[in-house]
């Protein structure tokens, strides 16, 4: 009888961060640890970094990661984050010499998109922005009935992430930024976008677009998320 396969389950690893095998040689591991069990996949993955474009992109990303912490020369080092996400995005785009940035945003974050667009322009980027409702395609093309729309309106415009992606592809953006697209719509944008994509913020209608709030409070104010039948 063949051994039962142990799937990777890093989220459930019980080893302290400083003692994990993925962080320290000779460290500990939980069952199914990919660092120990997936050598062939690891080797194939690391080989991709030999491609010049991939290596350059990954190298700049790692440089950006380190530069988001201050006073790294001090020992022992206590982590001191120093840069916001929007600053990090701008700096990474500059490192990559990107000139034309795409901004795909949700209609519910129109005000925020205007601010982000201005910030990017002030950093010297060309900005191509497109709202999720662009094109005014009705939700009926998805086969939705009137009572399946937000406002019970058969003419209600659908979010069109494929259109957003294709518009930015047509404009030949160097790098795309997502701002608040719905769950699923963001997935379609990732699938159809040709340029690399990063996320500035994700949509969470309840928490003011701070989805981790529900995770942090899952044992108190958001206990319901552990009981789907009550949500």
TL;DR?
By secondary structure, the protein is an alpha/beta fold. Helices cover 32% and strands 10% of the residues. A four-stranded parallel beta sheet has the order 2-1-3-4, sandwiched between helices.
From the structure above, extract its key features:
4-stranded parallel sheet, 231 residues, alpha/beta, Rossmann fold, 4 strands, 32% helix
Average pLDDT confidence is 94
- End-to-end C-alpha gap: 43 Å
User: Could you give the count of β-strands?
Assistant: 4
Number of helices: 8
Number of domains: 2
Structural category = alpha/beta
Strand order of the largest sheet: 2-1-3-4
- CATH third-tier fold name of the largest domain: Rossmann fold
The major sheet is characterized as: 4 strands, parallel
Order of helices and strands: HHHHEHEHEHEH
């Amino acid at each position: 009888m063949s051994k039962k396969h142990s799937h990777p389950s890093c989220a459930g690893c019980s080893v302290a961060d400083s003692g994990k095998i993925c962080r320290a040689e000779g460290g500990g591991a939980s069952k199914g640890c990919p660092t120990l069990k997936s050598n062939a996949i690891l080797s194939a993955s690391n080989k991709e970094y030999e491609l010049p474009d991939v290596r350059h992109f990954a190298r700049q990303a790692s440089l950006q990661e380190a530069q988001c912490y201050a006073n790294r020369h001090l020992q022992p080092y206590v982590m001191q984050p120093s840069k916001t996400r929007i600053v990090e995005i701008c700096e990474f785009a500059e490192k990559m010499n990107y000139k034309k940035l795409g901004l795909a945003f949700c209609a519910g974050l129109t005000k925020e998109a205007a601010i982000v667009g201005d910030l990017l322009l002030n950093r010297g980027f060309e900005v191509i922005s497109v709202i999720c409702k662009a094109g005014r395609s009705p939700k009926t093309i998805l086969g939705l009935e009137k009572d399946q729309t937000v406002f019970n309106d058969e003419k209600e415009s659908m979010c069109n992430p494929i259109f957003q992606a294709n518009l930015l592809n047509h404009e030949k953006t160097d790098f795309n930024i997502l701002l608040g697209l719905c769950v699923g719509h963001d997935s379609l944008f990732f699938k159809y976008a040709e340029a690399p994509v990063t996320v500035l913020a994700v949509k969470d209608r309840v928490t003011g677009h701070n989805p981790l709030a529900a995770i942090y409070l899952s044992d108190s104010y958001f206990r319901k998320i552990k009981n789907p039948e009550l949500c």
